[in-house]
């Protein structure tokens, strides 16, 4: 719900998600009748003849995802079909949040239901990225009233986190470079009294050499940096969250074709996920010692570009031969994961728009998830299914580690052949994670190529809510 129109200002201050779901104090509101196919006929018997005629005219039968407008006294009511009234999903109200007229609404389910999960879709159905539109978003908000007061805050916090990811990913690279990512991190750190540290220039070259090499070709205004935030009780379990912050990816000297560059503003989608997840951790007061790391760069083309065949030094001491400059995300993550491991965290989660291979295997909706520990992987799978943010596990198969070998260095960043690209990239990252550390990696798309209820085309959070649900269960 971005409301920011000043393109010089990287901050985002859109519609407050918390305003879109409010406690029911018996305000005047339009009823939304929730029905499913199993309950439809019984519900229909209680409607007036005029309402039944309106339903018939709109061919409404209670199918999930359908809705109809029916007369109700001097106003109207809404009939909405859901898969199962007793178990509402996150997105069952997403379309209604988008298409209904502005005003107040109240759920009137036919049967018992808990609506809390559906609040997220209601709010996110109203998301608009209007930063560059002259008229902005002039729509009157649709406000849902509920008696489930305790469910409002956590649901709206998740909706706000998703909206943050969308805002950041949707912003063009000219207005969201490494400096603007740093600014977003500063805002979050300041709001939660966290410590922020940013490494740039000569210190970056020394401490995070692969981050420096990948980002050194960019203009000075988009100079590379490592952004770190620390928060929480130092005695609490340590949690590290890492996000790939490639603010634009030209491919470097192995330049992408123009068609592949069109949405490369989204290549910082991992950083957006990491920032949003870290904010959820801090604002909820989760009992952890948080370490957020975002290597922020632009993979540009200039006389300073790193080259195919170059050998890069890493923070871990490993040397990396460059097989392809378009496999840059794993390089900057390597330095970040090394730094994260130095704190000996109980868990590392990283998010990255890392490989096209993951999209070929799983499509745009399912983030590829890799994990060292089976119980961590299962916890993420279960959490994703429970909150309608599914992820899919792919293997860290030891047999493919030999494909990372180099003739002249410790490893190669992009071996020839192209087989199992997502797994090989994950195995590359695994070399930089400390021995024995519990680690999970999300290869997420961070983009929705076609709209779905509650999920417009453009930047989106995929795997964020699954990770948050898992962290709440593990540390909450």
UniProtKB/TrEMBL annotation:
Transmembrane segments: none annotated. Residues 324-331 form the Cytosol aminopeptidase domain. The keyword 4Fe-4S does not apply. Keywords: Aminopeptidase, Hydrolase, Manganese, Protease. Its EC number is 3.4.11.1. GO terms for cellular component: cytoplasm. Residues 1-26 are annotated as: Disordered. GO terms for biological process: proteolysis. PANTHER family: LEUCINE AMINOPEPTIDASE-RELATED (PTHR11963), PEPTIDASE B (PTHR11963:SF20). Belongs to the peptidase M17 family. This is Leucyl aminopeptidase. The lineage of its organism: Bacteria, Pseudomonadati, Pseudomonadota, Alphaproteobacteria, Sphingomonadales.
